[in-house]
Write a structure and sequence with these properties.
Length: about 350
């Protein structure tokens, strides 16, 4: 089937991820008396890795990736338009990705995309926090940067290139300050948030809320996209996020994923060969960008623990080494599909340092 890895290749890729997590370097915050110093980006080792630093099978897999990636890239307009048309026909993210007062009226029964047996009828209170107008329906962008949080961004100098796009999408409220700007930029048009962030960092917003509001300043007046109706546990805390933003008059604009769109998107990618429990946020954002933008550029999408150039060890994220939930997301399989779209000229995947890419 198109887009699927061979069983042997998939097995090697999964082995790489599992073993690679043991090779990554931990990032620690250093305290100075009672104060915590701002966290600085970890400097990756820009030298060829020793044999002991490369997990079994990694070199062969990355070599195969390089063989496909290193071909001269050129946008294939016909293939791009075909893929975008397929997405629009089956998912229609432009109109359906975000809940609005028009597409989700009072009385409508929402079906949770992560819990198909759970439903919620929209009441007036819930309806009041839905955005009135669709932020995408009347707009079209020439270039979009979709920024993943992979450790491959460390020391990449991609910030300027990322920020040069007309529309910049970021995932899960990532840090953009204290030295990260050079590698990841600071411009944000849309940022997603996993509800676990509100629970773990801000006590589910049942206590003091000012620290949360202050943490949003770096994202300006961007859209804050929340999966309030994926799982029942998400709904109440996402509502509190919207209320907090309103109460403190924060410029950021909370909007909610439409579970109907997420369900149709899962079916679309399943038909493309991705048989995973749940799509990653990154792949969902790439899907939206392919409908919204003429030219889609991806940064920070690299699921392996060794860099494709030099094979030196990478942390899982550019800002920490917290492992991904492998039980939920099939990162190597998703990456393989994105790499295929890159080689087909549908989107542009950036794996090298951006200074060298510009030359």
């Amino acid at each position: 089937m198109r887009g699927q890895l061979s069983k042997s290749f998939l097995s090697l890729m999964i082995t790489l991820v599992c073993l690679g997590s043991l090779m990554t370097t931990l990032i620690w915050y250093k305290s100075d008396g009672k104060h915590v110093k701002p966290h600085q980006p970890a400097s990756q080792k820009k030298h060829a890795a020793k044999p002991s630093e490369i997990c079994k099978g990694c070199k062969e897999i990355i070599s195969k990736v390089q063989e496909r990636y290193n071909q001269t890239w050129k946008k294939q307009e016909e293939k791009y338009l075909k893929f975008r048309t397929d997405l629009r026909l089956k998912c229609n993210g432009i109109d359906k990705a975000i809940i609005t007062k028009n597409n989700t009226p009072v009385g409508l029964k929402l079906v949770y995309d992560g819990e198909k047996k759970r439903t919620l009828q929209v009441n007036k209170e819930l309806f009041s926090i839905f955005t009135k107008e669709n932020p995408f329906s009347s707009k079209k962008w020439d270039t979009c940067s979709v920024v993943g949080n992979g450790g491959i961004l460390s020391d990449s100098s991609c910030g300027k290139m990322i920020d040069s796009a007309d529309f910049v999408i970021r995932c899960n409220l990532p840090p953009l300050e204290n030295g990260y700007e050079k590698d990841v930029g600071s411009k944000t048009s849309l940022v997603t948030a996993n509800p676990s962030i509100f629970t773990q960092r801000y006590g589910s917003l049942v206590g003091r809320r000012l620290p949360f509001v202050e943490s949003l300043r770096k994202y300006g007046n961007s859209l804050l996209l929340l999966p309030a109706f994926s799982f029942g546990i998400n709904t109440a805390v996402c509502q509190r996020v919207a209320y907090t933003i309103e109460d403190f008059k924060s410029p950021i604009r909370p909007v909610f994923f439409n579970p109907q769109y997420l369900d149709s998107l899962a079916q679309f990618w399943s038909s493309e060969g991705l048989k995973e429990r749940r799509l990653s946020t990154g792949l969902i954002m790439v899907s939206m960008a392919l409908e919204l933008c003429e030219n889609v550029h991806l940064y920070g999408f690299w699921p392996f623990s060794n860099h494709p150039y030099g094979l030196y060890t990478l942390t899982n994220h550019y800002y920490d080494d917290k492992p991904a939930k492998a039980s939920f997301h099939a990162m190597p399989a998703e990456f393989n599909r994105l790499l295929q779209l890159h080689t087909e000229g549908v989107l542009r995947l950036h794996l090298g340092d951006c200074e060298s890419d510009e030359k």
